[in-house]
Each structure stands twice: as C-alpha cells, then as structure tokens.
C-alpha cells in the first residue's frame, strides 16, 4: 500500500489576508462554475451548430464532452492524490483550453467533435477545486468557501441566458465557442496565479491503470447507452448489450480492486458506512436536481401550438428576467448553508434541502402555467437546491481524511453524473408519452410536463429518504482542514 504523506507542522508564518483568501475563492468559483456554464452554452448553441455543419448527429456535440470527462475523471483524481491537486487542475484546464481552441477554429464537424472531446477533460476540475478548498483555507473559511463555490450555480442560472442570447445574436455559434476558449484560458491564469498547491498527497503511490480503464469504460458505456436509449429503443438488443457489458465490467473492476495493492478508490474508504451512504445520498439528491433543467427549460422555452405543444413559449431574455429571483435564492441559500454547516448537523441540512425541492416541484406539478406560478415554485425549490448543492462537498469533508478528499469528490461526481444522465433521459421518455412530433421535432403537451415534474419530485424524494441512512459524523469544525492555510 502507498504511504500517506502527512505534512509536518509548518513554521509559524503570517496567515493569508482575507483579500488573498477572497482571490483564491474567486479563482476556484470561476473554475467550478465554468463547467456548468459551458454545458449551458453548448445546449443553446447546438441548433446553430447542426444547421451550419448540416449534421443529424448533433447529440454528439454535448455527448463528447460528457463521455471524455467521465472516462478521464478517475485518472485525474488519482493523479491529484499522487502529484498534487493544483498541478492536475492546471493540466486539465490546459487540455480544456486546447480542446476549446480546436473546436472554435474547426472547419468540419469531425474536427469540432475532436476538440469537444479534448475539452471534456476540463470536467475533472470541479471535484479537484472542492478538494483544494479543504486544504488551502483556514477552518473558518472552509464551509463558507464551499458554499460560495456551490452557490455559483445560481450565477450561471442567472447570467447564462443573457450571455448566450448576446453571443448567439451578435456573434453566432463561433462566438460561443470562442467565449469558451477565452474563459478556460482565464481559468488557467487565475488558478496558476492565486491558488496555492495542497501539501496533502500520497507518497510512493502508483496509478491504478487497470482499475481506471475498467471503471472509466463501465461508466462511459452506461452514460452512452442511456444517452442513446431513446434512439436505439429501450428494449433493443444494442441497449441491453451496453448495459450488460457495463455491469460485467463493473464487477471485474471490483474484483481487480480487491487484489491490487493501491486501488483507484481505496476499499478502506468506500466500505465505511459514513462514506458510502454520503456518496449515495448526495449523488441521488444532487443528480436529480441537476436533471430538473431538462423539464423546466422545455416547459418555458417550447412554443404554444394547439394540440401539439403546450410550452410557455418564453424568449431566453424573458426567461432570464422571470427566473432571476430564483437564481438569487439559490446563491443566498448556498452561502447561508456554508455558514450554517459549522453549527448544524449536515444531515439535517441535506434532508431539509431535499424536502424543500420535493415541496417546490410538487407544487409545480399543478401550478406551472404563468410567470407568478413559476417564480413561486422556483423560490421554494431554489432554496432547497442551494442547500443541497452547498452541503454536498461539506459532507464529504466531514467523512473522509484530507488524503481521501480528491478521490471521494471524484467518486461523488461520477455518481452524480450518472444519476443526472439517467433522470434526464427518463424525463424525456416520460414527457414524450404525451406529445407529438412535427417536422422532425419532438413537442410536449402539458400532461407530459406535469409527469416530467412528478418524476423529478420522486427522485428528489428518494434523495431525501437516503439521508436517513447516513450515520452521525463529526461536524465541519471538527474535521481536519487548512493544511496549507
């Protein structure tokens, strides 16, 4: 087994100022939320991309980044434990910039997809940024910084529609791609200049290449199969083959991890009840919330066509204006949860946040036909969403050691990503049961939107119940943090 290097007590030195800590937070927030922002911009730009390159395979425009990000994530978090979180963060960001640059200048669709695939490595930056937060901030900053990083999703929800509308209207899809490249370059510069390296890592460890390949292949196969399920047919032999193959690969992965001296995700970590219950509960709760945008955006942006489509037909700008109070609520709730985590049991915060999302979207199943109703639903669900997103990284800090932090964040990100894909695709299937296809486009009736919201409510309720499995653990103020502060 690899030896864990525990940093020796540093020589007394003047602590970083609040201004310096603030700059570190800004750098990490930019890095974390750029993942969500790029996903949002990709979704908005894909229609123009399909028309420009005359392709019917536009699903690959977003699927490529998801597949490569999923595959490389286990290697990235293991490398961070071995060589340093900041180093791997910079490598992932640098590769993301290269991929974005290739996509921005691509003259054919194949080259564009190659660039998008390389850019997908950037997805590994989010769990690494949360892990760095534990190591580089003093104790009183850890919860607040984690809450701010999670609350940035509200900024993306608030500014994303305005930004995408401006870029597409004035510069087309090329403007979106160039914005991605420039933003990734800024992320690299901010991390390089302001974020200190974590001293916590494994000493003498080795990369578990076999385990990484098996896990990456299995999870990627699941994600790909679910993403293509509606196209292949959920009962098709091809879909079944991918799912069965992924399950067999996961079994082989577990058997291999039991035998290797230095497993990708140490069994001593994943076997602990405190760890696996937290990973399970947070993955389902956060994954369901990450997928709810599929239903809400379709409901808001789809047009009103008698007997064909019963969306609200809002413009992107109108959507941004109406939902801005909801985005503000997410930010406030996330920052407040980061502060409360030092005083309140994190299980209570996760359970309460999940319950609020059940209440909010439960109301939304019946009341979603006007701007006041959307705001009312969103304020309640937004409060819960901010609480859930903020408490997830904090709960992981509470149940793992500093040396396990990056690996645990990576495992949670994998679980949340798979949950998001599964719930999203199920939402499309459920909504399509009450809809119609016209000129090659799938439209949805109000019953479809209602059932899609009920699906989200059910998944959020499962996340709430899973919180009951989590045993009591040490609080944030008792966790070992601030190794580099």
Précis, in short:
75% of the residues lie in helices and 4% in strands. It has helices at residues 18-53, 59-83, 85-105, 109-119, 125-136, 139-194, 209-232, 237-259, 267-270, 273-301, 316-340, 346-364, 371-399, 405-432, 446-466; strands spanning 3-5, 201-203, 304-305, 309-310, 435-438, 441-444.
How does this model look, in words?
The chain has 485 residues and is mostly helical. Helices cover 75% and strands 4% of the residues. The protein contains 15 helices and six strands. The strands form three sheets. It has a two-stranded antiparallel sheet. The protein has a two-stranded antiparallel ribbon with strand order 3-4. The longest helix is centred in the middle third of the chain and has 56 residues, at 139-194. It is globular, with a radius of gyration of 22 Å. Residues 1-13 have low confidence and may be disordered.
> What share of residues are in beta strands?
under 5%
Largest sheet: 2 strands, antiparallel
Q: Provide the spatial order of strands within the biggest beta sheet.
A: 1-2
Order of helices and strands: EHHHHHHEHHHHEEHHHHEEH
The low-confidence runs, each spanning 5 or more residues with pLDDT under 50, are 1-13
Mean pLDDT: 83
Radius of gyration: 22 Å
User: Helix/strand-derived class?
Assistant: mainly alpha
Count of helix runs: 15
Helix content: over 70%
Q: Which outline best applies?
A: globular
| Overall number of strands | 6
